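For the sake of transparency, this paper describes our internal protein records without simplification. The record that follows is passed on verbatim for readers who wish to inspect the format:
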Amino acid sequence: TAYFVALQVGAVLKGTCYFVEEIFHLEARYRGSLSRALSACLHVRWHATLLVVSGLAHAALLDGDGRSLGLHFILACFCQLLFLVLGLH
């Protein structure tokens, strides 16, 4: 489940990076609409649903090792950003 959480975090972060890049092309590509650019770069409903389901499954299966779920989430975000920066995707 941690792997699926990390995959969804990676997809959301990658879409966010695409969105930041597309902001410079709002007028030419999206007629000035931020919502069109956001929906083109990031499928919010799909990724949010999968992220919540994966996160809840991970929380349910957490074996009580003393580490918080927030720490796992932060580490997953860090690893996905590192993969994106290094071009490992």
